[in-house]
Amino acid sequence: MPRSDLPAPRLQSSPPYSLEKMTDLVAVWDVALSDGVHKIEFEHGTTSGKRVVYVDGKEEIRKEWMFKLVGKETFCVGASKMKATINIDAVSGFAYEYTLEINGKSLKKYMENRSKTTNTWVLHLDGEDFRVVLEKDTMDVWCNGKKMETAGEFVDDGTETHFSIGNHDCYIKAVSSGKRKEGIIHTLIVDNREIPEIPE
């Protein structure tokens, strides 16, 4: 007989996927791209042959009853549709190793190369956090996942790439370090104050 003194069960809205269903979750990676940090999750059912890839909680690939338990799954990540591949390799017996490649490079190599080709700043304006990324090879500027409209300008000691965040004037100043190994130094200026760069 039900007891009336117990509180009624609370219903809660569920996320786009439920963690209870992800019993075969074997790997999770966080990948920093210009448009933001993306979470990649991989389910591998070694008894059912299931493979499921989630990017930012959204199911990208689902395969059931795969008889071959090793192999690879390829998909796209982020606004720039970066190619990503999860490699599934047998280590020994029924143990498997999962590695992520971004644009054909191991995640480690990709991130090392990315730190050479981008600068990233995080700042707090008007009660909101902003992540600004400069792609040095194209001089594209991204802010919270959106490619910004910019205007380049030559100045006495280098260049300035101007853009706005809300009603805040911003620019990235590029000046030569004078040292060959260091190359060009990029500095973000917002409302005439320098923002420290964060390592990624």
TrEMBL record:
Cellular compartments annotated: Cytoplasm
Organism domain of life: Eukaryota
GO cellular component: cytoplasm
GO term, biological process aspect, one: apoptotic process
Keywords: Apoptosis, Cytoplasm
Gene3D superfamilies per record: 2.40.128.180
Stored InterPro entries: FAIM1, FAIM1_dom_sf
UniProt keyword rRNA-binding, yes or no: no
Family to which this protein belongs: Belongs to the FAIM1 family.
Function: Plays a role as an inducible effector molecule that mediates Fas resistance produced by surface Ig engagement in B cells.
Name of the featured protein: Fas apoptotic inhibitory molecule 1
Organism in which the protein naturally occurs: Delphinapterus leucas
